[in-house]
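Notes continue from the previous slide.

Worked example: a multi-chain complex. Inputs as given:
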Amino acid sequence: MYKATFPGGVHPPEDKERTADKPLVALPPPEKVVIPLLQHFGSAATPLVKKGQNVLVGQKIGEANSRFSANVHSSVSGRVLAVEDYVHCSGYPVLAVVIANDGMDRTSSEISGTPDPFSLSPEEIRQKVREAGIVGLGGAAFPTALKLSPPREKPIDVLIVNGCECEPLLTADHRLMLEFPAEIIQGAELARVAVGAQRTLIGIEDNKSYAAAILSEHSDHFPAEIRLLKTKYPQGAEKGLIYALLRREVPRGGLPFDVGVVVQNVGTVKAIWDAVREGKPLYERAVTVAGSGVREPKNVWARVGTTLRTAVDFCGGLTGDINTLIVGGPMMGIAQWSLDIPIVKATSGILAWRSSAPAAEHPCIRCARCIEHCPMGLSPTQLAKFIQFEKWELAEKWGALDCFECGCCQYICPSKIPLVHWLRLGKNKISQAKRKKNN
Amino acid sequence: MTDRFLVQSSPHIRDRDATPRIMRRVIIALLPAFLAAVYFFRLRALALSVVCILSGLATEAAFLWARKKPLSPLLDGSAIITGLLLAMTLPPSFPLSLAMIGAVVSIAVGKQAFGGLGYNIFNPALVGRAFLSAAFPVAMTTWLPPVTLKVDILTFATPLGNLKFQDAVSQGTLAPLQDLFWGNVGGCLGETSAIALLIGGVYLLLKRTIDWRIPIGTTLALVIFTGPFWLADPTRYASPLFHLLAGGFLLGAIYMATDMVTSPVTAKATWVYALGIGTVIGIIRLFGGYPEGVMYGILFMNTFVPLLNHYLRPRILGEGRKK
């Protein structure tokens, strides 16, 4: 069978075998949760609760204040201890609601379910998704309601459901596909209706062909088709995935809308189903806890606001010598300095291991591997040089802003040059200059 | 357990391959040709190689010290490669003192003057060789027969020299292809045995250490350029296969044109570069004043690498599409 793919990319060791067969288990909610009001791309939600107030599971505690924002709901029942700044996994302080869990799991009935979700109009589906605070669960955490609202002049014909999970070590999406195939297929159908697409393509890497087979069994009555893709990182990156499945190229600086496509992660479409059918807001998610430094790696259902420490302790704790703690995957995740950081809607994995000292950096020998492996067709080594010499216009012209920091260049660089680091710096500087110009 | 973790930016995993490993593989790949040189030219080959490598390393060390840089780059293997490659391009009878000068020029002018590893425009070994060719033309064109030939003469001509100056095709004195293949001919240390060079080349290709487009592209261009002449008049022109096996073509196409630092970074530019090298070699061999054109072919195309990289940059995904 032909397996589509994108140009470039790398093959890091997958290391998924330790958790691929571990079913999702509920992580017991902790005594205290810290729920940041900004968990995604965009602006923070406005707090709706005060210190001392009692809240229920699923109660809205933060209100989206723009299209680029998402509602936040309590993941436990109990009393609000504080509304204050707390360090977020991105490294910045963010306003957060701290709640003492009363252990009763009393559920709020703010949002009602729908017995027949397929009778809803696109706008009704979007409304429920918006109300449930759903954001993209693949990593970037873009507010989903916004992604389900294509502008009128850009008709959508294909909904892509992203089941690639191309990051090494992570298996939470894999487990979702194995354990909740009906929910994923039906959630995808709701997303398809919401964007007005004619068909749904579900892209899955061929290292999860069993999950693909299970989804196929459930897709009979829907205009959905399962497509196996080559196992290659970053197969799940939006623009590359669209190219692999449809041979359509999202224009530089554009969005999937521009080529008639909307991409949703498998976890997100399951959350859409739960929200629309059951009236359940997004306050928990599937998380892989893995890496050689975790004693008993697991896939868990984690309530948003649970600390990394709680999750790691539930998985047998860490081995004594670890020095690296990552939220997300090994290629794009964010290194953490503390275990007291809360899990947010975007947290797909918690990884820990011992890494050896950073390898010595050598001069660039222009081997061109970074260029050969860049999925966007960029020249990372050249961009890094432009950025080092502060040639911002050249860096922009050569595509610095097209970089989505997948890390292939730095992974493959034999001279161990921190290329992604330079690109991040350059992207920041260029965006800053642009904002200044526009103001 | 303490909460003290390394905070680095992503990606958090790295491929195992490293620049010193790449250099090591190139050295390993040169070993068959080096051993062949020692077999055909005995101690001369060994002495020239040792002198070139040591002088190269000493020059590198002196420059690093003068530039107040750490001496660790000495261990990255690149200076060893330059020294060894230079030795491979010298005639076996070449005086050791002059070889030392060549190695100093290679590293000093060819590499460190530009800023060291990664910044040079021209292949450093060939810069050294070009200097020696200009400064000591007689020593650079005096050839010893390989000891395996058991001929009792002091000087000898290379197969390409015979082709150019002795009209070897019509005289019927052209070196047989099997001698070129195994190395039983006169020439520079590293260019006599085609099989030894090919073994190293296959190793480098399998290890994905050199860009396959370069040996393929140069070969194609040389065949396309020399083929029609041979087809038109095989009594005057040598066959493309002779051109591929004779002289420094394989050494240049596999080990020198492929130098990562001085070859282009994009696929399109690499094709232009490789085809250019093969064509220049063909022009010089057939119509130039020299019997051999590999060195100039590579140096000539090295010049264009920055331009090629600039104008043939890869297409960015979504570029040229309307938003």
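Summary box: Chain B has a mean pLDDT of 92. Chain B touches chain A through 47 residues (CB under 8 Å).
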